[in-house]
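Morning - D-xylitol-5-phosphate inputs below, output right after.
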Amino acid sequence: MKTEVCPSMMCADIFNLEGVISAFEKCSIDYLHIDIMDGSFVPNFTLGTDYCRHIKSRTDIPLDIHLMVNEPENKIEWFPIGENDFVSVHAESTNHLQRALSRIKDKGAKSMVALNPATPVCMIENVLDDIDAVLIMTVNPGYAGQKLIPSTIKKIEYARQFLDSSGYDNIKIEVDGNVSFENAVKMKKAGADMFVVGSSGIFNKDYSLEKGIELFRKATD
Ligand code: DX5
Ligand code: ZN
């Protein structure tokens, strides 16, 4: 599958969002990864519903909304999502995972289950018909700038094998957390298709966003 680049907007320069989005449009990146946190499922707050609406009004780049919130099934409605957008919900954040996923689908969007590093891949076993992708967290969610949890590389490999052997080779694998150029090579080799690139990769003061994306694509080609 094609390597898709999904910059993590919580790492973007808030004082220059116009320039950031123009750079991403110029580089034809695939999704804008937008982290939504409720201070309860994860110990942090980041971006919100109005932020998503502003971004959507400014660009046609599809959104990849990462809901790190409890009971996401009751909050899907709050977001401006459409057919090209992804929405991920954490398997650990709800008693009604299938209901949350079907509500994403009802909005015409693409659905994804996110798994924390300690959560086994088998958690998606009974929702394979309800998802377009699985998000393997390679750090514990909540903050940018963390270090990769090494065991998650094997977890990506296992997830890819599990999906392919179950007849779901169409389901993509997204990775999120410390996706540095070096780690991205290992993640891709293990089977990842969608890469959430944040402070470890393209958002680096030593080079422009365009340069960062060029370096990332070179590293993962
Ligand atoms: C962490 C977020 C990630 C994070 C990635 O909870 O989901 O999107 O911003 O940033 P880095 O590359 O710094 O790990
Ligand atoms: Zn994220």
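Note: The chain has a mean pLDDT of 97.

O.
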